[in-house]
Amino acid sequence: MALNIPDVFMTCRREQRAAVMPFLTSGYPSDKMFIELIRSMIRAGADMIEIGVPFSDPLADGRSIQKSSEAALANGIDIDRTLDLAREAVNGQLAPLIMMSYLNPILAYGEERLLRRMRRSNFKGMIIPDLIPEEGANMEQLCRKHEIDLIYLLAPTSDRKRRKRIIRHGSGFVYLVSVAGVTGTRKALPRSLKTWIRQVKKESALPVCVGFGISNPQQAREISREADGVIVGSALVEIIERAPNKRRMIQDTQSFVSQMKTQI
Amino acid sequence: MGQPNKLGYFGAFGGRFVPETLMTALIELEKEYKSLKRDKSFREELKDLLHNYAGRPTPLYYARRLTEKWGGSKIYLKREDLTHTGAHKINNCLGQGLLAVRIGKKRLIAETGAGQHGVAVATVACLFGLECTIYMGKKDMARQEPNVKRMQLLNAEVIGVDSGSKTLKDATNETIRDWVTNISTSHYIIGSTVGPHPYPMMVRDFQAIIGHEAKKQAKRIIKGLPDAIVACVGGGSNSLGIFYPFINDIDVRLIGVETSGLGLKTQHHAATLSRGKPGVLHGSYSYLLQDQNGQVRATHSVAAGLDYPGVGPEHSHLKSTGRATYVTVTDKQALAAFVELSRTEGIIPALESSFALAYAKKLARRMGRDRIIIINLSGRGDKDLGTVQSLLDGGGNNTNGHGGEEG
After folding, report:
1. Residue of B27, B177, B286, B290 to mutate when probing chain A, most A C-beta within 10 A
2. pLDDT surpasses 50 at A186
């Protein structure tokens, strides 16, 4: 049985480091490789893994994750297969999984039906990029009932009142969006990011993890000095996309994650 | 009926389902809009522009020859095709453009399907001296080419969208991505009564001038109210615009016409209210064409402006309360109506509006002679000549309007 999300942060705090959280699109580039990639990331020391359920209209995502989502949908990936594949991949592992899905596939599947099945596949948290706390009351209640952490996103544009609301209503951790924009790699992160993370950390009782635009282990290192966790998505999807063969795909993603791990 | 609740719901539909990055701006927009709505100088400035720039009020025209030809109820056309830029879209764009200037935005962004909304946004960007970027599906750029050229002439940057079905839905995704990235400088003029609160309410309010005028004109010309109002529904702005002032006049039937494309039995339609299920797309909870996994379906319509899998939340509400009814018309029937109005009255309608015409024809015969129907002629058809010509040339005798169904 996987650890719960708060346990992961407790371990990290004890080891005086930030948590490493890579992202994978479910069923990308294939069912089999997806399973291999999860396992290799756990071997490389990933503390948690975020798994994206593909959606036809991912409006918070940039080019790389749009493409991986399209490919996964073309492979016939849905929520049931995501749960099955995850279960197969993480059998007996400690690292918890976090599901990322836009709201509509969750509504179509049935919120409670999904939440009831998540823990069996090591999913301990849920990120819904188009759900804000004002609309989240029902989901929060169901998540509590089924012991799934509902992780809200907090943006650079969120004012103090909204930050308070997000911190109060969320659980697990606060997903701090590094820049106003969609997911995707960026050469440089905003200079104000450090102060911004510090500010949110001061206000938050929950751990604060930073995502969007983190492209390499050096950037991850900088952020890890302030944050409780670092999330990397598009950069990994691009490595997977570029890999000339399956062996290299595993090698390159694994070495990216272990570099992150040693840097932070 | 009327105003959405505090969270932007019309009954069970609406709300705000957006990335957090947009929320502060949406709350700000709602606040600004509510205060400007009561601001006399804003209202006067908009009124002046609608009159002197856009050419309002548009006539309520009695289509005598069409009425005689159809042999049923009296047909009146609300001539939105006569507005500057050629469609009702300008009503909303002037309102939101002024709003953007008042809140200090330097750049307008928008999605467009048929290109009418894009042209209207590009137009007000020139008028107010703002930068402008328009997203348009590549499929729509090909079939509505004259509008692409108009937008470019008006100095708008037109970005072709290559993802998904390359139509309005995908153009909307891309505009939202731009907005999330440039939220501090840019105002997104959503073109229909869709999107997160306050857009469905705000767009409806700016379009309600159509219905307010029609009501006043009807009282003057026909000494009363019409028996029915018929309008096409894509996202739903021209229809809500004309319906809204009649919502409490319960003897007036309100009929929205969706596109059943190649037929409701095929997957090639965009009849959201007739065939969809409630879900979340582009910021609100409303009827949506989707598969069993909640993935949004590809749509089809000969009219690019109706080729959209979603619909405004207030329409979903009007459907659930039964205040409005929603029916469908096929591409073929609409095309026949397009030709018929052109040749009977010398008015070339937009393909979108032709869906309303095609249904009104059936309704006029059923309702009989002593009744009055207003059709919202939402736009003119110059943009569609290429599409229509190739269909008429290639598709054989399509102009008789056979077959079809209604939902």
Report:
1. B177
2. yes
Neighbours of B249 (CB within 10 A): 12
For residue A196, give the 3-state DSSP assignment: helix
DSSP A162-181: HHHHHHHH--S-EEEESSSS
Backbone angles phi, psi at A92, to 5 degrees: 80, 0
Supply the ipTM of this predicted assembly: 0.96
In angstroms, the CA B265 to CA B250 distance is: 33
Q: What is the DSSP letter of B80?
A: G
Rounded to an integer, what distance in angstroms lies between the CA atom of residue B361 and that of residue B356? 9
Which residues of chain B does A130 touch, with a Cβ-Cβ cutoff of 8 Å? 17-19, 280, 283
The torsion angles phi and psi of B372, rounded to 5 degrees, stand at: -125, 130
Is the CB of A74 inside 8 Å of chain B's CB atoms?
Answer: no
Taking the CA of residue A131 and the nearest CA in chain B, the distance in Å comes to 6
* Closest of B328, B199, B307 to residue B255, by C-alpha: B328
Q: What is the rounded CA–CA span in Å between residue A115 and residue A48?
A: 18
Q: Phi, psi at residue A143, to the nearest 5°? A: -65, -40
Q: Give the global pTM.
A: 0.95
Residue A232 DSSP code? E
Residue that is written with structure tokens 């009929």 in the block:
B255
pLDDT of B2 over the 90 cut: no
**Segment B134-145, tens digit of pLDDT:** 999 999 999 899
